[in-house]
Amino acid sequence: MKIIRVSNYEDMSKQAGKLMVEKIRSNPSMVLGLATGSTPIGVYQYLIKDHKDNSTSYKNIKTINLDEYIGLPFGDSNSYHDFMKNNLFNHLDIQHENTYIPNGNAKDLDIECARYETLIQEIGGIDLQILGIGENGHIGFNEPGTAFDSRTHIVNLAENTRVANSRFFQSIADVPTHAITMGIASILDSREIFLLASGVKKAQAIACLMTGKWSEDFPASALMHHKNVTIIADEDALTVF
Ligand code: GLP
């Protein structure tokens, strides 16, 4: 794993954004795996600004997101569909039919998981996957204990994940209890991965990732055996390491 140490959130967003733009420009029809949460917002702002200033085009880019809550009504501002539209897609020249996010309202969620897994292959696999990390080491919504050979599946969200994500909702009771997420094996199939981390809340998880053992109790440790992972982390996230 390669580590890029940056000073703060702004710097993390700029470094990751710059690298992404270089890759998009050299492969304008690439497949980007995207993440939600507060961590990648600055990177998305960088991409939007670069698109305006330098006309980097997303016309032929495809995106596929890691996860989505189950049961949030269509158009709910906390759904990852809305998050992606508001924070990225609506500000680029991307074709909306080329952006994919699991359907957390599908009638048959098992069929939806299988469809999504097949879709990843059908669009050519993921060239570059962006990841944040949960305080408990989750990637996507793969909570501790998830099998490393897991594919897209339904998860029961860990209580600490619901508490951490409740800051976006009116109350903890409003945070969904379940989600659909790409599995760990689905993520590891990506040809390249950027893991972003900012802030002291992530320091323990990052320390665990860099020094810890390979264990399904710590989902991010699956990345240790991937050939092309870059961690872009700020000083605060690297304090324990
Ligand atoms: C959610 C998302 C993850 C994300 C994590 C961390 O649980 N499903 O993909 O990495 O939150 O969020 P944040 O970046 O807000 O700390």
Key features of this structure:
alpha/beta; 7 helices; 10 strands; carbohydrate metabolism; binds 2-amino-2-deoxy-6-O-phosphono-alpha-D-glucopyranose; hydrolase; 31% helix; identical protein binding; glucosamine-6-phosphate deaminase activity; 3-stranded antiparallel beta sheet; 241 residues
Describe what this molecule looks like in 3D.
The two termini are 14 Å apart. The protein has a single domain (2-197), classed as Rossmann fold (3-Layer(aba) Sandwich). The chain has seven helices and ten strands. The strands form two sheets. Strands 1-10-9-6-2-3-5 form a seven-stranded parallel beta sheet. The chain is globular and about 45 Å long. Helix 1 packs across helix 2 (41-54). With 241 residues, it is of the alpha/beta class. The structure holds 2-amino-2-deoxy-6-O-phosphono-alpha-D-glucopyranose.
Query: Within the largest sheet, what's the order of strands?
Result: 1-10-9-6-2-3-5
Uncertain segments: none
Count of the separate structural domains: 1
Shape assignment: globular
Number of helices: 7
Helix content: 25-40%
> Total number of β-strand segments?
10
Overall pLDDT, averaged?
A: 96
Helical/strand content category: alpha/beta
Question: What is the chains' assembly state?
Answer: single chain
Heteromolecules bound: 2-amino-2-deoxy-6-O-phosphono-alpha-D-glucopyranose
